[in-house]
Each structure stands twice: as structure tokens, then as C-alpha cells.
Amino acid sequence: MKGKASALVTAALVGSCFIGEAAAQTATIDQAKALVKQGREYLRKNGCAKTFEEITNGKGLTNPQHKELYLFVYDEKLKNLAHGGNPKLQGKDLHDMRDNKGILLNQELLKVAKAGGGAVEFDFFNPNTRAIDPKTGWAEWEEKTDCGPVMIGSGIYRPKGK
After folding, report:
1. Cα angle 79-72-114, degrees, rounded to a multiple of 5
2. Both ends of the chain: CA-CA distance in Å?
3. Average pLDDT, stretch 66-93?
């Protein structure tokens, strides 16, 4: 009996950690848009090399209240230039990247970015939950850079089923 009680307490504690992480994901699409605007301004002011380093390895282009918010940057051919959620993606050709539903997420983000900015829904790895979660990505096109035009974006993770 003591072993069962201990296992239940452990399960409850582990479960509460995951619930806490999921509940902490409270960012809004407006906050993601604001982070993209901040990233675009930083890019125009500081150039590509410094911006890409800051996004991928730094801590300045984030939202400290919402750790699930980060920036990503792609060139027009969808080579990843910077990724705040997964530095291993930097430098990779992600033109044909699909989510688990078959959505060509980067191609869709590029379309809305070039059309003046917009949102795309897809599933993506969430660095906070360490799981594939539903996400709404926001992307914008930026032409005023020292490395050519780029797509810059962010997004919010949504609870499963929403």
C-alpha cells in the first residue's frame, strides 16, 4: 500500500509539473507580432550577422514573460538563417518541411509574409513541453537588410484540441 501511495504522489507531482508548463504558455498572437516587429527593427539597425546570432544564441530578442515566444528567420528559398527555438535548424534548407498533417509550414509562412504578414496554423516541436504541439505562426517579410530580403516570424503554441 505504501508503494502505491508513493507512486501516486510521484505521478501527481510529475503531472503538476507538466500542467504548470502548459499553463505557463499564455502568450498571445499580438505578443508574437510585437516580437516580430522588434526583431525587424533590430535587424534593420544591427544587420544580419548580429541579429541572427542574437536570435539563435542570445537572450535579447525574446519575451521573458513568455518563454515559448522566439524568433525564426528564413531566406527566400527557405534556408533557415536563425532559430531561437532550435539552434540545430540554423543553416538547413527547410523548404519542404512538413508538419505531421502534411502542411508545408515554411512555404505557407512565406506566402503570408510576402502578402503583408499573416498567420499559419501547424504543429511544431515545443521546446517547453518537449512535444509536438499545435502552433499559430506569424511571419512578415523584411527587405531592408544587409543580407537581402528575409522572412522573420514567431508564433504561439496552443493547447492540444484548440
Report:
1. 70
2. 39
3. 94
